[in-house]
Amino acid sequence: MTTFTAILHKEEDMYIAECPEVGTVSQGLTIEEALENLKEATELYLEEFPVENEKKTLMTTFEVAVNAKV
User: Can you tell me the distance from the alpha carbon of 53 to that of 1, in angstroms, rounded to the nearest whole number?
Assistant: First the structure.
C-alpha cells in the first residue's frame, strides 16, 4: 500500500478531488464519493503508469490580504 495526497474543493454541487503526486482528478456529490472515485482513478492510472520513485508532496498554507494593493 502507498499513501497519496488528496486535495479537495467544491465547485457548485460537486466535490473535486485531485492527487498531485500522479495528476489524477475525479469528482463526486459528497467528499466520500469524490475520494472513492479518486482512489479508483489513481489505482487504474498506476496499473498503466507505475510510480518508480515515490515522491511525497509538501502541503502548507499561507495568508494574503484580500484587498492588497500592488
Answer: 14
pTM of the model: 0.81
Instruction: Please enumerate in sequence order all residues whose Cβ is within 8 A of that of 30, keeping only pairs 6 or more positions apart, or say none.
Output: 15
C-alpha pair distances (Å), 5 with each of 25, 42, 58, 65, 67? 12, 11, 9, 27, 31
Q: Judge residue 37's burial from the number of C-beta atoms within 10 Å of its C-beta, 0-12 exposed, 13-18 middle, 19 or more buried.
A: middle
25: cell is: 482528478
Beta bridge partners of 28: 15
Name, in order, each residue with C-beta under 8 angstroms of 58's C-beta and a sequence gap of 6 or more.
none
**What are 12-24's pLDDT values in tens digits?**
999 999 999 999 9
